Structures are given as C-alpha cells and as structure tokens.
Amino acid sequence: MSTTAVPLRPIAKGSLTRLWIGVAAIALAAGGLAWAGQQGVEASPSAFLTQNTHADGVVTTESGLQYKVLSEGAGASPTPADVALVGYKGTLLDGTVFDENPQAPMPIDGVVPGFSEGLQKMKKGGKYRLWIPPQLGYGDQAAGPIPAGSVLVFDVELHDFKSKAELMQLQQQMQQQQGGPQGGMPPGAGPQPGN
User: Fold this and answer.
1) Apex CA 83: angle with CA 66 and CA 70, to 5°?
2) Sequence-ordered list of residues with C-beta below 8 angstroms from that of 92, at least 6 positions apart, any chain
3) How confident is the model at residue 129, as a pLDDT?
4) CB distance 88 to 137 below 8 Å
C-alpha cells in the first residue's frame, strides 16, 4: 500500500497577519453590534437612579428622591398643610409624556410621596426637575399610562401656594359676596304684608 503525499504550499508572507487582522475586525464589529443593541434597552430604574446621582447638580434625598434646581424661587416653601398651584410635565425615562398641566392646584399631602417631598423643597417661582423612584411613586402597580415600577420624571414650576385654612376662608368670603346666607332671600326682599 502506498501513501500519496499532498504537497503543502508554503504560507505567503503577510497572510497570517491579515488573518489576525480579519479576526480582530470581526470581534470589534460583533462587540459594536452588541453595544448598539443594548442602547435600545431601557436601564432598570435602580441602575438609572444610581447613575443619575453623579449627574451635575442632582441632589438625592434620604428617601431616594432626586432633584435638580433649574431655577431657584424666593420666600418660604410649602408644607403638607398647603395647596400648591403648579405647572408640570410628567414623563417616563424614555421621554413619553404621561401628564402635563401649565396651572394645576394640588394639595401637598394629596399627591404621590415623591412629588409631595419635591414640592416641599421648592420656593415660589422655582423650577425643579424631580426623578421619583418607584417606591415614592406608584410602586409595583400600573397607573393609567404609567407602567408598574416606573421612575417618574417631572419638570415642575411652583407658581404659588396657600394653606388649606386660607383657602377655606377665601371660599367663605366668596360665598358671602355672592348673595349672603344660603337657603333663602335676604330680609326685606320678599313680598311685604299688606300689599
């Protein structure tokens, strides 16, 4: 039995180098595609908030609320016993707007905890951006267009605020100006006896 020998050709100079360059180019392209694919995937709320703590001007409170002063106001800040007149725009992390109002009255103690805490840091005329973590927002429950576990992003302007007691007093004054006591005609307005 005879063995037929197949002659091997010698490797040309530079072929091995080109091979390794090709392998490196393919690896870089694959890594680039993997990175680009990850850019479309939204970061988890905790990963976003962790990264956001290092952003310029962002303050993180003990509760986990993050805020940035866009424009400082003047005077006192509202308390939980107040009603604030605010303009706001609420978005999700991907920029989807879920609510917006240029002028809305809001009881400080009647909104989600993160929004309440943020309002209490503001002064009249101030503009803030709030990042409300899920535990200070709607938590693990969906709320209308807001998916469960969402970080809420609000741009808020505090126009004014009044205490609930002041508002009740204003309401009573308005009722008195609009016609006196309710439930009947003022004295002397009805038919007079003997007519």
Assistant:
1) 35
2) 98, 146, 147, 150, 151, 152, 153
3) 98
4) no
Q: What backbone torsions phi and psi does residue 110 show, to the nearest 5 degrees?
A: -115, 15
Neighbours of 68 (CB within 10 A): 16
Output the pLDDT for position 28.
Answer: 67
42: pLDDT confidence band, cut at 50, 70 and 90? low
Q: Find residue 99's DSSP bridge partners.
A: 90
**End-to-end alpha carbon distance in the chain:** 146
Cβ atoms of 100 and 88 within 8 Å: the answer is yes
HEC-encoded secondary structure of 35-93:
HHHHHCCCCCHHHHHHHHCCCCCCEECCCCCEEEEEECCECCCCCCCEEEEEEEEEECC
Band (pLDDT 50/70/90 cuts) for residue 171 is confident
pLDDT at 187: 47
pTM over 0.70: no
pLDDT for 5: 61
Pick the CATH number of 46-174 from 2.60.120.560, 3.40.1190.20, 3.10.50.40, 3.20.80.10: 3.10.50.40
Residue 9 in this model has a pLDDT that exceeds 80:
no
CB contact set of 142 (below 8 Å; sequence gap of 6+): 148
The C-alpha atoms of residue 106 and residue 120 are separated, in whole angstroms, by 12
